Amino acid sequence: MTPKTEKNILGNSVETVKDLSEHASPNFRGSITFNPELINDRYEALLESCPTNALAKVRENERTIISVDHGKCIACGYCKDVEPKLVKIQSKSALPVKTKTNLVEYSNPQPVMQSGKPYEEIGNELSEKIKKLFGRSLAIREVDAGSCNGCEIEITALNNPIYDIERFGIHFVASPRHADILLVTGPASRNMEIALLRTYEATPTPKIVIAVGACACSGGIFGDTYATTGGIDKVVPVDVYIPGCPPRPEVLLQGLLLAVNRLKPEQIAKSKQELN
Ligand code: SF4
Ligand code: SF4
To answer: Does 112 have pLDDT greater than 60?
Structure first.
């Protein structure tokens, strides 16, 4: 290596980006939202346009409103093509939740999506909690239960120099026996059902499971068919649902924070006893 190349490499300084929100593309399809003033009676075409049955018509106080299940929505935009004034696609992602019903938002009143915190802030909060709870790093085992690989690309990005998740004390492990958390993608294809179940059984307490992406949350674009189970909660208990197709790395980190927030010190103590 020439001194010039060496100087260039060392001169790169820190590669991580401090405020990732400045780097988010405004064209990114994060989630859909509605313009409630424009809701009319032409629901049928709108509902039929959705390939994942994420949209539903709900009667409330003699009014009809529309709901979107972010756990099913793949942000394809077909509904917007049918009703461009009613449906808006926003770059803001739907956020992770602890219970599946919280993935559903209604058109009226206007959905108020919580905004995600900056990546760095979530990471630092997570790092503090991990230190306090575990006294060591947090280990994740990723399980692909039949995904298209899109979610894996975003999960892999967590390890790149931009997101650099290891600096927060989080790392991926090869065996479920060494894992605290299972990060599961895919609709849980029938072929992966037993493998997922065995991975879950091999994971020590507290066995936290996170469903990553629309497929893992509900079956997504693969749906519930002869070849798929229609969501990983049909196979193993799920603690956190992360919507998106695929979810961005910052949303994945937010899902991890939600999962760690669910843990109690007694569960960690039990896990330590099991390992000794
Ligand atoms: S964006 Fe696509 S998946 Fe989402 S509600 Fe609209 S049609 Fe359905
Ligand atoms: S949620 Fe989307 S990106 Fe993730 S596995 Fe399913 S289809 Fe692929």
So the answer is: no
